[in-house]
Write a structure and sequence with these properties.
Distance between the termini: 55 Å
Number of strands: 7
Structural class: alpha+beta
Strand content: 25-35%
Number of domains: 1
Strand order of the largest sheet: 2-1-7-5-6
């Protein structure tokens, strides 16, 4: 069974559980089984038969390249990680930075 780490944004659906063991040979099966355990999780992870935009799935140590078809082995870790954006642009003209 895969060890699925539940991101903070989904923990209200899992009653605060942060990690759960889920069976499945592919990422799709793992997500379907996670949905059976905690209804509502799939719609937060999957959209249009793919991992939602703004979210990355990491199986083992690698980001998924095959999406929901990614193979999931025994005792593998699965993480769903929200993309991080932000920061601010720094004006170069007259900013005095880098001098």
């Amino acid at each position: 069974m895969a060890r699925v780490f539940i991101p903070f944004a989904l923990r209200k659906l899992t009653d605060g559980v942060t990690e759960v063991r889920v069976s499945g040979g592919t990422l799709r099966e793992v997500i379907d089984n996670l949905e059976e355990m905690y209804p509502g999780t799939k719609e937060r992870i999957v959209e249009n038969d793919a991992i939602k935009s703004g979210l990355a799935a990491v199986v083992g140590e690698q980001p998924t390249r095959e999406g929901l078809r990614t193979k999931v082995g025994e005792d593998i870790e699965v993480h769903f990680i929200p993309h991080i954006a932000g920061g601010r642009a720094v004006a170069r003209c007259g900013s005095g930075l880098g001098r």
